[in-house]
Amino acid sequence: MKPYHQIPIAECGEPLIKIPLELFAVESPHPYEKLGAPYGEHSPYYLRQSAIANLIQAQNYLHLLLPDWRIQIFDAYRPVAVQEFMVNYSFAEAVQQRGLNEVELSPNQRQEIWELVYEIWAVPSLDIQTPPPHSTGAAVDVTLVNDTGQIVNMGSPIDELSERSHPDYYANSSHPQAQEYHAYRQLLRDVMLKAGFQRNPKEWWHFSFGDQMWAWLNNQVNPADFFTACYGRII
Ligand SMILES: C[C@@H](N)C(=O)N[C@H](C)C(=O)O
Ligand SMILES: [Zn+2]
């Protein structure tokens, strides 16, 4: 259980609708579909109606600062079966990157790698009180594309299992491009938060509106108010 799972969910019933992809840049092919993630009849390019309105608003804010830049959508709606697939995929990838063999892992090695995976991935829970954020249609993973159509270098790829994923990793780093990476991460954060989203404290690319993590983060900033989640799991 993460602390945000304590937040009550009062499902508001707002529909999950297709993101108007023509307004945004889009990672293509979709990073998890290309791995064979089991979407069935679902599509990753869906979000709750208000989350879409806010995403459009975030890009409008970006355009006031940088008219030809765009928000690039990496991932949005994710059925629990896909969450499970990606968690297992990330575990297997981490094992392989360490030159290990999954069947020969010691219990300690296994636990260490699972802990690393769950640093950035939510548990594929089917409990309606603890839905994975993307399974609610409230969460979106995004980055920026500049005026020449290039993906902006944020200093680490989306979904990397490392501390470089932490939003402020480059704030006090001696890396020669640290200031640039941090400034771009801040720019993405600023436009998204101005539009009502909250950012996952462990991932520079993950934002949500209306889910448990969003409510919990709002409550950290404004302890006098008590936000609850209005979006629970869909399907
Ligand atoms: C790992 C990343 N793509 C992501 O979405 N992480 C959050 C926490 C999630 O799994 O919901
Ligand atoms: Zn995410």
From TrEMBL:
InterPro entries: A_A_dipeptidase (IPR000755), Zn_M74/Hedgehog-like (IPR009045). Zn(2+) binds at residues 134, 141, 206. The keyword Kinase does not apply. Pfam families: Peptidase_M15. The record marks 78 as: Transition state stabilizer. It comes from the Bacteria. One of its GO terms (biological process) is cell wall organization. Signal peptide: none annotated. Binds 1 zinc ion per subunit. Its EC number is 3.4.13.22. Its cofactor is Zn(2+). It catalyses: D-alanyl-D-alanine + H2O = 2 D-alanine. Keywords: Cell wall biogenesis/degradation, Dipeptidase, Hydrolase, Metal-binding, Metalloprotease, Protease, Zinc. The active site is at 203 (proton donor/acceptor). One of its GO terms (molecular function) is metallopeptidase activity. Catalyzes hydrolysis of the D-alanyl-D-alanine dipeptide. Belongs to the peptidase M15D family. This is D-alanyl-D-alanine dipeptidase. It comes from Dendronalium phyllosphericum CENA369. The lineage of its organism: Bacteria, Bacillati, Cyanobacteriota, Cyanophyceae, Nostocales.
